[in-house]
Design a protein that fits this description.
This protein has six helices and 19 strands. By secondary structure, it is an alpha+beta fold.
Length: 344
Amino acid sequence: MRDSITIGDAVIKPGERRIYELPVARLYTHTPMTMPVHVIHAKREGPRLFVSAAIHGDEVNGVEIVRRLLNLKLMQQLRGTLIAIPIVNVYGFINLSRYLPDRRDLNRSFPGSHKGSLASHLARLFIDEIVNQCTHGIDLHTGTNHRTNLPQLRVILDDPEVERLAKAFGTPVIINARLRDNSLREAVIDKGIPMLLYEGGESLRFDEQVTQVGLHGIIAVMREIGMLPKKKSGRKRRREPLVVRSTSWIRAPKSGILYSKTSLGATINKGEVVAKIADPFGENEEKVIAPASGIIIGLLKLPLVYKGDALFHMAPLEEIDNADTVHGDIQAEDFQSEPTVGSS
C-alpha cells in the first residue's frame, strides 16, 4: 500500500481525491485567502506530477486547461499522484492582474522565503507544499501585455528527460529557453525535477486551440511517464515538433499605428513585408521588413506602437533543428496525437 500524502494539514490517503484550500496571507480586510489544490492520490504507485496555472494572475487559459483535465474520466486510470493548482496567484487572479498586490512578479520570486515579501512567502509555500512532493512538473502560461503566442514549450534541451517529455507533449514549437533568474522553472530544475513550461494564447482570454493543445500535451506526458496507460492505437501526428535553438523579435522602426500582414504560425521569408506603420493622418507609412526567414510564434495584438516595440516573435529557420520539415504555415492540430477533448 502507498503512503499518504500531506499538504498543509490535509492527509490524502491512497485512492482518495480531494480539494484542499491551502491557506495563504489574508487580505488587509482580514478576509481569509487560500490557494486551491486538487489532489488525486491513486492507489497504484507511479510518478507525482504537479500541474500549475495562473502564476501570473491574468493568464487564465491555463485555469481552463486544468479544469478540463480534472474532469476527464481518464483520471480514473491514474497511477501515482496528480497535484493540480489551477490558480497559484490568487491575489492577481481576483484583480485580473499579472502581479501580486505589491506589484511583484511571483515568477521572479522563487524559491522564496518565509521572511520576505508576500511574493516570497507565496513562492516558498508553493515549493514546500507542492514542488517538494513531486517528481515532475508542468507550468501553464499565456502571452502578456497585449501579446499572443503560438502554442509552444520553453525548456532546457540539454536535459534528455526534459527533451523526451517535451517531444511527447506535442506543441508546434519547442524552444530551448534559458532559465530566468528566480523563476519557478529555475527553482524546480535546481531540485533535479524535470519540468515543462507551456505558453499559448494571450492574457485574460480563453483560446480553444491553445486549450486543446495544452490538454492533449499533459495527457501525452502522463502516458509517457506511466501515469496513464499507453494508447493501443489511434491518431498519429502529421508533423513532429519544431525544435528551436534561439528566437528573435522584429521591432517597430517608428512609432504609429500598426497594420499587420501576417499571423501566428505563418512562415515568412527574408525581405517580406510583414506589417506597415502609419501616422494617424495616413500621410507617412513605413514598411516592416522581415530580417530573416522564419516562423511567427508570437505577435503584438495592440495596433498602437512606439519605435522599438516588439511586434513579432520569430523562430528563424536557421535556428530550427528540423527546418527541412517546414513547408507552409504551422497548424497546431498537426502536432497532436490525442483526439479532441470536449469542453464540458
